[in-house]
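Take a minute with the sequence and C-alpha cells given here and flag any C-alpha cell that looks odd. Thanks in advance.
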Amino acid sequence: MDTPAKPKYATGKTDERGLALAEGKLRHGMKIGGEVARDFVLREALTSDLLQAEQTVGSDKELNFSAAVLAIQLVKVGTFTGPFTLSMIAEMKVTDFSVLRTAQSELSALGEAD
C-alpha cells in the first residue's frame, strides 16, 4: 500500500472559520504596489467560491476557472491581503501559477479526506 505523499504547502493550520490553510513561497513572486511579494497563504475553497468564480468566468475554461477560484482563495501574498483579482493571477509566471495550483490541489485533497 502506497503511503500518501506529505503535502508540500498544506500546513495543518486553519483560519478562524476552520478552513485549512496552505503556505509557501512563489519563485518569481507577484508585483504589488511596486514590490515583488513571494510568501503566500491560500485557504481551502468553499462552494460559494466555486459559484462566484463560475459567475465571473464560467466553468467551461478550466484554467480561467481555476485562476478565478485562486483569486478568491488567496488570503495573503507578502503583506497584501487582497482583494486579489483575476488579472493579478493572469500576470504571474507559469511556475508560480503552478505552485498555487499545487497548493490548491493539496487543500482540496485534505477536504476530501475529512
Observations:
- The two ends are 20 Å apart (CA to CA).
- The longest strand covers residues 20-32.
- The chain has one domain: 10-106.
